[in-house]
Amino acid sequence: MNEVTPTPELEAFDYKSDVNPVWCPGCGDYAVLSAITKALAELRLARENVAVISGIGCSSRIPAYTSVYGFHGIHGRALPIAQGLKLARPDVTVLCAGGDGDGFSIGGNHFMHACRRNIDLTYIVMDNTVYGMTKGQASPTTEADWRESKLTPEGPGVPPFQPLDIALAAGASHVVRAFSGRVQMLTKYIVEAIQHPGFSFIQVISPCVTYRPEMRALKTRVHDGFAETSTNRLEARRRLLDDDGYSLGVLFKSVEPSYKPCATSDEAVADLERQFVL
Amino acid sequence: MNSMELFLAHALRLEEDSAINYDEMADALEVHHKGEVSRLFRKMAHYSRLHLAEVERRAAGLSLPRLKAWEYQWPGDDSPENAPAGEADYAMNEHDALILALKGEQGALAFYASVAEASSDAAVAALAKEFVAEESEHVALLEERLAKTPDTGPEHDPDPPVAAG
Questions:
Q1: Cα separation of A126 and A100, whole Å?
Q2: Which residues in chain A have their CB less than 8 angstroms from residue B88's CB?
Q3: Which of A155, A223, B26, B29 has a C-alpha 20 to 30 A away from that of A242?
Q4: Minimal Cβ distance to A135: which of B20, B77, B164
Q5: pLDDT of A151-187, one tens digit each?
Q6: Residue A227 pairs with which residues in a beta bridge?
Q7: Rounded distance between C-alpha atoms, residue B91 and residue B96, angstroms
Q8: Residue B116 covered by a domain
Q9: By the CB < 8 Å criterion, does B56 face chain A?
């Protein structure tokens, strides 16, 4: 996290815009918005020094609901935009947000490389295991036997994407799973993620009660399985071997080098161009 | 909870969170053209703000601790008067909304009752009992209204979401 001068007397509601969310009643994303604004208030970050970048999907509407800078980008490309912003303006606190489809399918490749580059930003994925905005199709994290969509009447038939495993394998240095129904803990995780000097990934289980009403029961299934944070990547990956998908907590945290662009180049653009001449 | 400052910091947060939570649910239902349900939540937000103003009056002149969001000593995962927003849905009727509001008020009542019972500070316990009385009134009013409001089932949706994928 950058060293910034704290802004006095900003409350969580100061970080909310006057645009009312159009999420469905009961959507977990309301709680994520609440936790983000509480975290920004906790850190007393000046609004002009924060940016929220998103892609496409229900959850990707979130920049409009905050009063900090925002960019509602294109599908799956939130991370390239967020990384570009952070490299160009390292003084800005960058949050990147979106859903499981945006982040793990359309933007899946960017996710892996963002983990690997370890650029200092916080990526919050509101994982509702469904494409809600397009009316309820299976997403990368949907269970193989989920049969509620006419597009996949026998279920997607493929094992769900494992975000934490992929994040660890690809090199993310701060890996967390949270639940939107536990706002206090989510707020704490977001504060810690922003303070972490590197790429922080938070998978937030965020129920879609409209297209997956059975997700209401998740509040009784989540548990503090990652109560102790590992600083050893191998050990963290071992802990995922018997993870049921509902363990919450900071799974892994380690301070590791970040990608830094070359500050200067000895070669002129014309010299570089000559290498491409056929 | 044995200090007036700490107790009032909790009461302030509880009432403010509750008002915001009710307003959010009112806004969400308004988007779905559920005017009656939206108005109910808006009214609940208004009552929370009235109680908030009263707590602010009690806290005047005291130096309250600035707690981090996760340092509040709530009995559950969330601010106790927050109606369980995750149980809301776009097809809910007034009966459903009253049940959610009732759960919120019962949460506040239980919290204040636990402070009244457990606090070793006589002034804190006495004030918590006052708040218990107020929340009990809210619970009674909601229960009375709930008894008069039939459950008409979810509103008919010609294009139900779950079958639409």
A1: 7
A2: 25-26, 209
A3: A155
A4: B164
A5: 899 999 999 999 999 999 999 999 999 999 999 999 9
A6: none
A7: 9
A8: yes
A9: no
**Cβ atoms within 10 A of the Cβ of A11, count?**
11
pTM of this structure: 0.93
- Whether B100 and B83 have beta carbons less than 8 Å apart is answered as yes
Q: How far is B11 from chain A (nearest CA, A)?
A: 16
- Scanning every residue of chain B, which has its alpha carbon at the shortest distance from the alpha carbon of A206? B86
CATH code of B39's domain: 1.20.1260.10
Asked if B88 lies within 8 A of A26 by C-beta distance, the reply is yes
Neighbours of B17 (CB within 10 A): 24
Residue B78 domain-assigned (yes or no): no
In a domain, B85, yes or no: no
Rounded to a whole number of angstroms, the distance from the CA of B160 to the nearest CA of chain A is 9
Contact A213 B85 (CB under 8 A): no
pLDDT band at A262 (very low <50, low <70, confident <90, very high): confident
Write down the H helix ranges in B32-88: 35-59
Q: Which among B70, B85, B90 has CB closest to A185? A: B70
Q: Could you state, in chain order, the average pLDDT of each consecutive group of 10 residues for chain B (165 residues)?
A: 96 96 93 91 95 96 94 92 91 93 96 96 97 95 95 84 55
* In this structure, CATH architecture of domain A12-274: 3-Layer(aba) Sandwich (3.40)
pLDDT confidence bin for A6, thresholds 50/70/90: low
Of B25, B69, B162, nearest to A187 by CB-CB distance is B69
* ipTM of the shown complex: 0.92
CA distance to partner chain B, nearest, from residue A28 (Å): 7
Residue range of the domain that includes B27: 4-66+90-148
The tally of domains found in chain B comes to 1
A53-83 tens-digit pLDDT: 999 999 999 999 999 999 999 999 999 999 9
Hey, where are the domains in chain A?
12-274
Record: contact B86-A137, CB cut-off 8 A:
no
DSSP A99-168: EHIIIIIITHHHHHHHHHHT-SEEEEEEE-SSBTTTTSB--TTS-TT---STTSTT---SPPP-HHHHHH
Q: Is B25 on the interface with A (CB under 8 A)?
A: yes
